Amino acid sequence: MMQRLIPSKAILASIVLAALAAGASAEPFEYVSIFEAEQGAPKQDFRLSALLEDFETAREARWQRDTYTGDWHGLRDTLKDAGIVVNPVYEAEVFGSAGGGHGGAISDGLLDVELDFDLQRMTHMWQGALFHLNVLDIYGSSLSHKFVGDLGGTSNLAAFNTFRLQEMWLEQSFWNKRASLRAGMLAADSEFFESKASNLELNGTFDAFTLLTSNFKNAPAYPVAAPAVRLDVTPVPVLDFKAGVFAPNEDAEKNNHGTDFSVNPKDGALIALETSYRLNQAPNDHGLIGTYTIGTFIQQGDYATWASQAAHALDPSRPLSYGTNYMAYGVADQEVFKHGQLTIEAFVHAGFASSTFSLVQNYWDAGFDFIGPAPNRSHDHAGIAIARSGISKQYANSMEEQGKPGASSETVIELTYKCQFTRWGAIQPDLQYLINPSGRNGSRNAFVFGLRTVIAF
Questions:
Q1: Which ranges of 318-436 would DSSP assign to H, the alpha helix?
Q2: What is the torsion angle, in degrees rounded to the nearest 10, for the CA atoms of residue 417, residue 421, residue 426 and residue 428?
Q3: Of 276, 272, 330, nearest to 297 (Cα)?
Q4: What span, in angstroms and rounded, lies between the C-alpha atoms of 91 and 188?
Q5: What are the residue boundaries of the structural domains of the chain, listed by start?
Q6: CA distance linking residue 448 with residue 366, whole number of Å
Q7: Which 8-state DSSP code applies to residue 146?
Q8: Count of beta carbons in the 10 Å neighbourhood of residue 283
Q9: Could you say which of 3.30.2350.10, 2.40.160.180, 2.70.20.10, 1.20.1250.20 is the CATH number of the domain covering 7-25+68-456?
Q10: Contact in structure between 385 and 365 (CB atoms under 8 Å)
Q11: Closest CA to 94 of 1, 21, 158, 15
Q12: Distances (CA, A) of 338 to 277, 288, 334, 335, 381
C-alpha cells in the first residue's frame, strides 16, 4: 500500500498536544462594564491573585470533563437534545523496531470524527431510525510495511494516507428494538468477530484478524467499508444473530476518499453469518459477564488455487483454477475475576480458512485485559496477548515449487499499558515481539516498541 510520511502534520500534532498540556483552552474571562455594574452586575476582580485563582479553577474543570473541548458553551448539549452527537477523537503514535527486515522508526496518526443523527428525536415521527457516518484523516508511515514486513500490522491505526469517508449507514430498529436492519457503507470489523477485551492491544491482528484481512480481496475492514446490508436479531437477551452481505467494492487505494460507491462485478458478494451467546447480560443477571460467538465469511469470486498459480507461473499455457473462499471462526470474551476496582477479562479468537485459496489457513489468539491494575488507577488497563497465523500448506508448497522460500507461521506477543490520565486523554506504551514476521521461512524476528496518545475532543 502507498505510504508517505508527513512531517508537517507530525510537528503540528506535537504543537497541538503541547498546547493542550499547557492549558491553552482555559475558559475566557468576561469583562463587565461600568453601566452593567451600576445595574447590579458584579464587578470583575482583575487582581493577579484573583485571575490566577480563576485560571486554576478553569484548568481543574477542564481535567474533569468527558471531552477536552467540553460542551462548547452549551452547544454540544443542545445538539444532543436535538438528536445530533459529534465525537472527534485524535490518536497519534510513534513506533520503532529492531530486527525484522531492518530497524527503523515512524510516526503516524488518525483523526476520526463520528456523527450520529437520531432521526426519531430530530423528526419526532421516525421511530427507531439512526443515521451514522464517520470520516478519517490518516497520516504517516506504517512500521509493518516499511521495516518489519509482518501480516497482522504492528499498529491498528496505520494505513495508506488519506482523508476518507469510512462508514455511512441508515439503521432501522423494530420488534421493540430486538432487531435492526442497517444499510449503506459498512465495515465488517465494526460489528462482527467483536471482542471487548482485545480492543486494548495495538497490533492490528487483535482487531481484524489475518483470517479476514489476508485472505479476502478488499476486505471491508479499517480503514475500508463496502456497500452492504446487515440484519441483527436478538430474540432473547442471551442470543444474538447477525447476517451481512457486503458487495465487492473497488480497491481501497483507487477509491482513496471512500466516495466511490460502485460495485466491482468481477468479485462475488461477501456473506457474513454470526451467532452469539451472552452470559449474565440480561437486566436482572448477576455474575461474571461473557460472550461466546461463532461465525463464517464466504465469498464467491475469482480466487485462484495456489496449485494452479504455481503451475501457471512455471508454464503460462496451464490454466488457472478458480473457486469460492471461506473462513470460520469462534470468539470467547469472558470476565474471569472481579473484586473491588480490579476486573480481569480473558479473550480467545480461533478459526480456519480454505488452504486452497487462502494465505492464512489457521489462526488463534488469546490474552488478558486487567482493568484497574494498580491502586487508585481504576480506569487504567494492562494487557498481555499472543497471536499465531498459520500459513496455508498449499501456499507454502506453491512457493517452493517456484524456487521461492517456503512459509510456516507468524507469531506476535504483545505487552501494553493504557494510562487514562483524564476522562478525555490517555497514553499507551506498547511492546511487541514478532517471531518469523510475514510467515516466510528465514524472516528475522523483531522487537517493536511504541507509544500512543489518545485525545477525545
A1: 393-401
A2: -20
A3: 272
A4: 22
A5: 7-25+68-456
A6: 19
A7: I
A8: 5
A9: 2.40.160.180
A10: yes
A11: 158
A12: 21, 8, 11, 7, 14
Residue located via cell numbers 528465514:
442
- The grid coordinates listed for 73 are 458553551
d(C-alpha 390, C-alpha 355), whole Å:
10
Please list the pLDDT of the chain residue by residue as tens digits (457 residues).
333 334 445 444 544 444 444 444 343 334 333 334 344 545 555 556 655 565 566 666 778 889 999 999 899 999 999 999 999 999 999 999 997 667 899 999 999 999 999 999 999 999 999 999 999 999 999 999 999 999 999 999 999 899 999 999 999 999 999 999 999 999 999 999 999 999 999 999 999 889 999 999 889 999 999 999 999 999 999 999 999 999 987 666 678 898 888 877 677 899 999 999 999 998 889 999 999 999 999 998 779 999 999 999 999 999 999 999 999 999 999 999 999 999 999 999 999 999 999 999 999 999 999 999 999 999 999 999 999 999 999 999 999 999 999 999 999 999 999 999 999 999 999 999 999 999 999 899 999 999 999 999 9
Q: Give this prediction's pTM.
A: 0.85
Terminal CA-CA length for the chain? 30
Element (DSSP H or E) covering residue 448: strand 446-456
Q: How far apart are CA 270 and CA 245, in angstroms?
A: 6
| SS3 call for 11 | helix
- Pick the closest to residue 25 from 17, 35, 37 (CA basis): 17
| Residue in this structure with the C-alpha cell 468481477, named with its chain if needed | 266
Three cell numbers at 20?
493542550
Cell numbers linked to 252: 481501497
22's CB contacts (< 8 A; 6+ apart) are none
